[in-house]
Amino acid sequence: MSPDPLPRLTLVLGGARSGKSAYAESLFAAPGAVYVATAEAIDDEMGARIARHRARRGGGWITVEAPLDLAGELRAQARNRSGVLVDCLTVWLGNAMHAGRDIDREAGSLLESLAAPEAPVVLVANEVGLGVVPDNPMARAFRDHAGRLNQTLAGRADQVVLVTAGIPLVLKPA
C-alpha cells in the first residue's frame, strides 16, 4: 500500500507478466476505487486471464468495463474520490484498432478526458518497443501507436513507473 497520496496522474509501464497490474493496484490505499477493465473475454483463455485478475485484486473495487469507450468511462468516473485505475491501455488500443477506429482521434479523446481529473488516475500500459520489429504492417502500426501514446502520457503524467520482474523502478518521481 502506498502511504503517500497518489499524484493526479500515474503511468505504470511494463512488459507482459511483469507485475505492472499488481503494482498499480497496490497504489490504492482506500477501498472503493474504480477499476476500469479494457479486456473482453473473446475466448476461453482470455476469460481465464480476466478471472485471475479479478481473483487477485479481490473485493473493494468498483469494476466497470470499457473495451472501446475508455475516454467516456473516464469522464463518467472522474468524480470517484478514491481514484481510478485503468488496466490496460495497450489492450484498449488493440480493441480500437480491431474495431477500425481512428486511433489519433481516440487517443486525443483519451488525453482530453485526462486533462483535469478530480481524483487520482493510474494508467497501466505495456512497453512494447523493446523487442524486435514486428513482421507485419498491423503489428508495426500497433507498436508505433502504443509507443506514441506512452510517450505522450509519460510527458503529462506526474509519476511514471516501469515494472520489471515485479520490481518497480520510478522513472519520473511525483
What features would you describe in this structure?
Helices cover 40% and strands 21% of the residues. The chain is an alpha/beta fold. A 7-stranded mixed beta sheet has the order 3-2-4-5-1-6-7, sandwiched between helices. Helix 3 packs parallel to helix 5 (103-113).
Rg is 15 Å
Strands ordered across the widest β-sheet: 3-2-4-5-1-6-7
List the total number of helices.
6
The total number of structural domains is 1
Unreliable segments of 5+ consecutive residues: none
- Care to count the β-strands? 7
Largest sheet: 7 strands, mixed
Q: Remind me, CATH topology?
A: Rossmann fold
Structural class: alpha/beta
Strand content: 15-25%
CATH superfamily: P-loop containing nucleotide triphosphate hydrolases
CATH architecture: 3-Layer(aba) Sandwich
- Kindly state the mean pLDDT as a whole number? 91
Give the N-terminus to C-terminus distance in angstroms.
16 Å
Concise overview:
The chain has helices at 20-26, 44-57, 70-77, 89-98, 103-113, 137-156; strands spanning 9-14, 34-37, 62-65, 84-87, 121-126, 159-164, 167-172.
What features would you highlight for this structure?
single chain, 174 residues, alpha/beta, Rossmann fold, 7-stranded mixed beta sheet, 7 strands
